[in-house]
Amino acid sequence: MEIRQLRVGGLLLASNVLMAPLAGYTCYPFRRLAFQMGAGLCFTEMVSANALKYQDRATRQLLFTTEEEPVKAVQLLGGSPAVMEQMAQSPLLETFDLIDINMGCPVPNVFKSGEGSALMLDMPRASEIIRACKKSGKPVSVKCRTGIREDGMFAAEFARMCEYSGADMITIHGRSRSMMYDGTPHYEEIARAKAAVSIPVIANGGIFSAQDGDLMMERTGADGVMIARYALENPFIFSQLTGKPCRKTILDILLEQLELTRTYYDETFTLTYMRKLASYSMKKRKGTKKYKQKLYQCGSLDELRELLITIFLQKRHDNLSND
Fold this sequence. Notes:
The protein is α/β, with parallel strands linked by helices. Helix content is 45%, strand content 15%. It has 15 helices and 10 strands. The strands form 2 sheets. Strands 3-4-5-6-7-8-9-10 form an 8-stranded parallel β-barrel, surrounded by 5 helices. Strand 1 and strand 2 (11-13) form a beta hairpin. Helix 1 packs antiparallel against helix 12 and helix 7 runs parallel beside helix 8 (187-196). The protein is globular, with a radius of gyration of 20 Å. The two termini are 33 Å apart.
């Protein structure tokens, strides 16, 4: 795929390869990693506007960032234009450069509350929410799906509404709400949306290799791609797509993530996050399955660090022995 800078409102992103917001994973340390690997933009985990309104402690933790993060993007979830407007202008979001509105989450409890992908069924309210967030003066993007069901997709119509309402970029997950996270993306729906608007359109879904990224761009004509869960398994995907050099091993990355996380978060959070991230890193790697139980039994960060060294140095040793 063609790697280039991407303009979103008044922002100029270093690349058109983006990291998706992922609940439980895209905390500050992982966003820093993705940027270092070549991502042009990374988003916080999904932040509930209602929870933010009441200054929920766990929700505020999702907003943690520092000056070291080159571009700061927050993803807001909400169904009330008034609450979204209030939170978009909140001092809590003052340091963020871009607001992304979640209009694609397919989870039942979110959908039933009229948030996430449910907003695709209520375009007037979705439009109000975009206009409300634009009052913050920040660039606004929207993340949505191709539609609700496969027998009635309308990504192009929804994209036109987003642009008309003031959105500066739209990301389209190439699956309908009913498909959840499985199935072949509907490339043609993303292509129709791209042809319908002049703002950047980012394609998301089903990208599990650099070749998949090339295919997505070729079939959709999108302005860029967004990587989701595959980045947890293979954070090198950003350097593979962008060509940004990286000489680190997966062990180097995990140890750096451990140190960065323990610097800014408490031990409980760090243990939970690092166990999950290490589990993804062990996925499809021969000889690591036997360590999964030990990984979740670690009671301290120092113990976890030693186990990571054991797991991934042993893996490296096994590879050398097989050469």
